[in-house]
């Protein structure tokens, strides 16, 4: 039996160096208030198994915390398409290396339900969106 995941789109990965200590960056990526400042309104709680919603342009998006290792990493499922989003933090003296990994992509021609567009189109759009969200919005929110 062939493994179709081989043909799936690659993870979207964005890394930025933030001029702030890891604890401050962790607060921006692991609290409802912090996430709302740079990403989307939400009812997030930093608890393993917590189900929450991101208020996306398509309406409330269901999510669930699947991994939590303060202040180093946080992973949650995003929407019903099989996506996962991970926040990975690494202490660099008084700075923090932050990496976002958006995984769980399907094959390029598969449709994404809510958007009713091909996975490849959404992947391209989100790849570009994550650049400004991580490189600009998160960095600015954490460095204030």
TrEMBL record:
Signal peptide: none annotated. It comes from the Bacteria. Residues 19-142 form the Activator of Hsp90 ATPase homologue 1/2-like C-terminal domain. Belongs to the AHA1 family. This is SRPBCC domain-containing protein.
